[in-house]
Amino acid sequence: MSEGAPRPGQDHYVAQVRTNIGVADGHRLLTLICPEVAQTAVPGQFLQIRVSVSGQDPLLRRPICVAAAREDEVDIVVRVAGRGTDLLARETPGAFVDLLGPLGRGFTRPGRHEPVALVGGGVGVAPLHFLLTSLADPSRVRVLLGARTRALLPRQPGLSGLEGLRIATDDGSEGHHGTAADLLAGVLETDPPHRVYACGPQPMLAAVARLCIQRRIVCEVSLEERMACGIGVCMGCAVPMAGGGYTRACREGPVYDARAVKWE
Ligand SMILES: Cc1cc2nc3c(=O)[nH]c(=O)nc-3n(C[C@H](O)[C@H](O)[C@H](O)COP(=O)(O)OP(=O)(O)OC[C@H]3O[C@@H](n4cnc5c(N)ncnc54)[C@H](O)[C@@H]3O)c2cc1C
Ligand code: FES
Fold first, then answer.
1. Which fold has domain 12-103?
2. Is 183 within 8 Å of 170 (Cβ atoms)?
3. What is the structure's pLDDT at 122?
4. Exposure pattern of 97-111 as b/e (b: 16+ CB <10 Å)?
5. Ligand 2 centroid to 255 CA: how many Å?
6. Helix (H) or strand (E) holding 77
7. I need a surface site. Which of 68, 116, 121, 217 has the fewest CB within 10 A?
8. Among candidates 31, 42, 159, which has minimal Cα distance to 95?
9. How far apart are the first and last CA of the chain?
10. Hey, whose CA ends up nearest to atom 31 of ligand 1?
11. Residues of the chain with CATH 2.40.30.10
């Protein structure tokens, strides 16, 4: 990645790493200089990032959500899950990163004063942070974040200190002892929002979807299916639909209306 810059084509860019900081154990926030993506990305979209130096190993690009976009730069949050994300998380300022994007379908923007809740699990907070920063009135937003333990909660600048922020950890090391879906269940009882947006592990998304469908609250989920090509040609990201058949998370998703998805 850092050696030589491939020639960009349409939606194919070479971005330079501006900064790389730790935001939780095994989580890095990278700021990439890429004005084209910064000016066109919408919350919920993702980038397909080449993580190999030679272009051969690992062969496949890795999908990573846009976590914020400003004039000429975008943020991504990388959780080290395996070899590819480990290589990406080690990129140093000045290095070049080869990426495709922005890709996929993003979140539907809520009405200007519509009360909404954002429910994030682990690194799933990244696209929700981007959505939050794009809202006209973030003061009306409830942000419910969960992680296995305190050390794994991504501390993204702009989230801490937010009035509507509530935390849950599976082990009770910070905030509510339980899950972000538990927090949502409480909010739906006392002061239900008009819309819920969620991103995180599959069991959390299924629980959030169930709660919202039962109460007829509009809910959009961002699915983190495994992907191969990321551009709609391989069917490696097939998502079963409630009405039958499959769609491609990389083209028709990764954001879906929770009612459209067939949950296990
Ligand atoms: C649309 C989309 C957006 C994503 N956004 C982000 C993001 O913003 N930040 C981030 O850190 N990660 C994100 N991911 C997940 C990330 O792409 C995977 O963790 C990464 O591809 C794993 O590659 P690897 O080489 O590090 O690990 P591998 O060696 O390929 O796998 C390591 C472990 O992670 C598991 N794994 C691999 N891919 C996934 C996946 N998609 N979901 C769950 N488990 C997986 C494998 O089963 C294995 O157990 C996103 C995924 C998708 C589809
Ligand atoms: S990852 Fe190839 S079609 Fe979606």
1. Elongation Factor Tu (Ef-tu); domain 3 (2.40.30)
2. no
3. 93
4. bbbbbbbbbbbeebe
5. 14
6. strand 73-79
7. 217
8. 31
9. 38
10. 82
11. 12-103
Pocket of ligand 1 contains residue 63 by CB under 6 Å: yes
Q: Is any atom of ligand 1 closer than 6 Å to the C-beta of 59?
A: no
What angle (nearest 5°) sits at the alpha carbon of residue 228, between those of residues 4 and 255? 110
Q: What fold does the segment set 116-260 form as a domain?
A: Rossmann fold (3.40.50)
What is the whole-number distance in angstroms between the Cα of residue 140 and the centre of ligand 2?
36
Residue 208's SS3 state is helix
Rounded mean pLDDT for each run of 10 residues along the chain, 264 residues in total: 43 95 96 97 96 76 96 97 94 95 95 92 95 85 95 84 88 97 96 96 96 97 90 93 96 97 92
CA dist 84 and 90 (Å) reads: 10
Q: Distance between CA atoms of 42 and 39, rounded to whole angstroms?
A: 9
Sign of CA dihedral 248, 47, 209, 116: negative
How wide is the angle at C-alpha 62 spanned by C-alphas 80 and 57, nearest 5°? 90
Cα 226 to ligand 1 centroid, rounded to whole Å = 7
What single DSSP character describes residue 97?
Answer: E
Where do you find CATH 3.40.50.80 in the chain? 116-260
CA distance 83 to 117: 34
Taking a C-beta distance cutoff of 8 angstroms, is the pair 132, 141 a contact? Answer: yes
Tokens 């095994």 identify what position?
26
CA 24 to ligand 1 center in whole angstroms: 17
Burial class (CB in 10 A: 0-12, 13-18, 19+), 178: middle
User: Which of 178, 222, 245 is CA-nearest to residue 63?
Assistant: 222
Task: Tell me the two tokens of residue 187.
Answer: 């909010």
